[in-house]
Write a structure and sequence with these properties.
The structure is a single chain. Helix 2 packs across helix 5. With 122 residues, the chain is mainly alpha-helical. The chain has five helices and three strands, in the order H-H-E-H-H-E-E-H. The chain has one domain: Winged helix-like DNA-binding domain superfamily/Winged helix DNA-binding domain (Arc Repressor Mutant, subunit A, Orthogonal Bundle).
Length: 122
């Protein structure tokens, strides 16, 4: 029976670092939060995540699909229709990222005040 290795993101050679880096990306977090609401088309995702370019959205969705977090559904219609949704694995990431986004919203006033205090001392 093979034993699973002890993954440790603090070790430079650990492959889990790439997953952490992907999850820590701001666009990934926002896309996962939005897709937690349900299946969406590319244009709807781009509208929901203000400020993301089409190129960055495409690259991020491909990375998430490669990592097994997002599934791409292509419909044989004219014009072709493509939709994206979280996989079961992606759904396990939704709640933690939603909690982080809520934390950011709830504490931004304190963060901005801390920045202002810090900058005033410099």
């Amino acid at each position: 029976m093979s034993q699973q290795p002890d993954w440790n993101v603090l070790v430079s050679t650990c492959p889990s670092r790439t997953s952490l880096a992907r999850v820590a990306n701001k666009w990934t977090a926002m896309i996962v939060v939005v897709l937690g609401r349900g299946r969406l088309r590319f244009g709807d995702l781009r509208t929901a995540v203000e400020g993301i370019s089409g190129k960055v959205l495409t690259e991020t969705l491909r990375d998430l699909e490669r990592d097994g977090l997002v599934e791409r559904h292509v419909y044989a219609e004219m014009p072709p229709r493509v939709e994206y949704e979280l996989t079961a694995l992606g759904c396990t990431l939704h709640e933690p990222l939603l909690a982080l986004s809520r934390w950011a919203e709830q504490h931004i006033a304190k963060v901005l005040a801390a920045r202002e205090t810090y900058d005033a001392r410099r």
